[in-house]
Specification:
The two termini are 47 Å apart. Helices cover 54% and strands 17% of the residues. Helix 1 packs antiparallel against helix 4, helix 5 packs antiparallel against helix 19 and helix 13 packs parallel to helix 15. Strand 7 and strand 8 form a beta hairpin. It is α/β, with parallel strands linked by helices. The radius of gyration is 47 Å and the shape is rod-shaped. The chain has an eight-stranded mixed beta barrel with strand order 12-13-16-17-18-19-20-21, surrounded by four helices. Strands 5-7-8-6-9-10 form a six-stranded mixed β-sheet, with helices on both faces. The protein is built from 21 helices and 21 strands. It folds into three domains: 157 residues, Beta-Lactamase (2-Layer Sandwich), CATH 3.30.450; 149 residues, Reverse transcriptase/Diguanylate cyclase domain (Alpha-Beta Plaits, 2-Layer Sandwich), CATH 3.30.70.270; 236 residues, TIM Barrel (Alpha-Beta Barrel).
Length: 637
Amino acid sequence: MSLIRQIRLLLLGVVLLAIAGGVTVNLLSARDALQTQLRLKNSDNAQSLALALSQQHGEAQLMELLMAAQFDTGFYRRVKLVRPDGAVAFERSGPSTPTAAPDWFANLLAIESEPGIAQVSDGWRALGHLEVVSHVSYAYDDLWHGGLRAAGWMAVVGIAAALLAGVAVQRIRRPLDATVEQAQALVDGRYITVEEPRIQELQRLVAAMNGMVQRMRKLFEAQTAQAEALRRQAHADALTGVAHRAHFMERLQALLRREDGADAGLVLVRLSKLAEVNLSLGRETTDRALIALANTLQAYPEHAPDCFVGRLNGSDFALALPAAGMAAETAESIAAALRSSLPTLGPALQAHLGAVELPRDTGIGALMAQADLALARAESRGPFAVEVANEAPANGAATGERAWRAQIVGAISDGHHARLVEFPVVERKGALSHLECPLRLQLAADGPFEPAARWLPLAARARLTGQVDSHAVKLALAAISRDGRPRGVNIAAASLADGAFAAHLRHVLHDAPRLQHKLWLEVAESAAVEQFELVQEFGRLVRPLGVRFGLEHAGQRLSQIERLFELGLDYVKLDAALCAGVAANAVAREFVRTTTALLHALSVQVQAEGVIEDDDAQALWACGIDAITGPWARLAG
């Protein structure tokens, strides 16, 4: 039983006891007063009647007439005259009159009518003594009605006291509920503080809880900073802070391999004749030039978060672009920026740029060869020259946006042109956690079912992601109802800002109350960084319904989510680029271990994406990863 309920029952008991005690004391006092009044009345009436009888000089008939007249008034139960020798000279008695008070009340509070006794005489001659006993029914009536009035007033006072007590209890309950919510938030991995109440005892409790939350938040922030430092150490170039070659290539490979990835672009930048520059200008100036070049490239990820930069070797840098058709324009923009900044550090500093589009169907080796060829052609042209290996039109340009919109709407409207593919997410002992289910659409009659990489950018441009994601959720729920296996669906960032999508999703989930706990919904880490409030609100929408909610492609920018503990996540999927090669990289393993421990402290499950090698899988299990997906998981399953 809760403390508040115990307090309420205690207050109710006290109020009822006070009412019962007050009514009882009132009734007992009233009964004693009525008995005293009856005794005095009987005595007074006996004295008055005896005086009248004494004035009749012993005339029996007159005396009987007076006593009969007195009895007939109806207020007396008995009038009796006893002679000196003990013989009864006159006696009149009658039954008790009915009362308004119930019998149990009369039995419980019995009222005694003590007889009034007076001497009757004729001068010095004693004629006997007179006994007068009044009826008690009137006293019972007065006592009953008085008791009802007292009980009514006591009830009014009790109700008022109960209302005041309720207000006081509510005043106590609010800070207690806030403290309980705060404690539950800690269990859920969220750090919230509450306002200190005015109640002194609760104020100390809340202050202690707030202090503990602040300390845990600082500890979490310290762990986050440590994890970010390990990430930089494991995956970043020590001088410039951008990704080193191995990690850049892993991220590029993961981008092109992702189900929801798109055609991309790549820009290579080379600081020309680095060895000669180092000899002529010195190591310090050369390092400043390399840092300036890296900072110029880093400006693009700051405005387009899906971009990323890497240092491929001493003089070569690369910028990966998240969309097709942007490589040439971006390369020209970078060249202009370097043309104005590098010569200020030294006249010998020059750069050359090569750009290439990255279709998903081409191997990464061939793409890098094309980029290197473009870079070589740029070097032959002169300082800050730009060469583009090939220029692929943006996806959908040939067909037209209107036609693409019609194809996407047609595919999700017809149940036969949209399907979910299934990739297992397995736990440590091989049990199935859930199935990742990306959506594929058949956009052309008798055509293939296309991955999201082909149509998602166009769906986002046409504001169709909400409709597409709603359809994917319905397909997942239908599949769950068929075989009972949990399934996960990715939600596009653009859908989070669509109010119609949220309303429709709530309706869809309410229509499947027994399937909600087997549905996993996830959004990209970039959405949590850029649209924190929308992601938080989406979690508040789906989690109370039993849906699992998490982040995918996470880890690169996890430290940038300032209030990660307030998202209310159930799980996080570490990006494939962070999980690749961890078996051979001790620092990368330590980063994964630290990040996993950090997320476990928030009661968040940690999963690894895109795992290929068995050695990496075993290393990830050793780091505390809860589940793995990717080619290794498909083979293990």
